[in-house]
Amino acid sequence: MGIQITPSILNADFADLGREVARIGSADWVHVDVMDNHFVPNLTFGPTMVEALARSTDLPLDVHLMIDDPDRHAPAYVEAGAGSVTFHVEAAAAPVRLAREIRSAGARASMALRPATPVDPYADLLPELDMLLVMTVEPGFGGQRFLDLCLPKIRRARDLIGRSGGQTWLQVDGGVSLETIERCAEAGADVFVAGSAVYTADDPDAMVASLRAAAEAAAG
Ligand code: DX5
Ligand code: ZN
To answer: N or C: which end of the chain has fewer CB atoms below 10 A?
Structure first.
């Protein structure tokens, strides 16, 4: 798998999501930010909305759960049609069991780290994960400034993934734009979430193409 771009609809028009998703036809995934007002101070979608989105697009859904108790709630998102489900390790009681459950329900299993959560303690979990998400802002809102302090962790994660067989995708999310995507790609990320960069562009699909070109050039 090469570089993948997964626009976040968090900054799209919620009243017209079917049309908004149709504006990013060349994306690899649609990134859906699920927030519960507990794990993060913001509230967005639930499984019913994910189900409706899945019906409205051919693009696979990359669901990012920023919720408490993902052990209990994650399976409903696989059921709703998500192709990939990401839970936060800070919220999960049993991350290995949860990743296995997501996989056996038929989706890709992914685990996210907040900016202050180190990756090293989770090195042995990598074979259980189809993707690792290194957050590059504090989760909760779109449009925040990229945190450069996360770059060493992206490099470290790439190194650990290489040692564990190299199968796990490495996603970055938060403040990713034409200004920051090269740094992430150089550090070893291969899946890029971009919310405001895509949905504030006049032509969101052209922005997807530009982001992809910039990441591919930087990844070499
Ligand atoms: C933040 C979300 C992100 C957000 C990204 O908590 O997880 O997916 O939508 O938006 P930008 O790209 O604007 O930082
Ligand atoms: Zn996200």
So the answer is: C
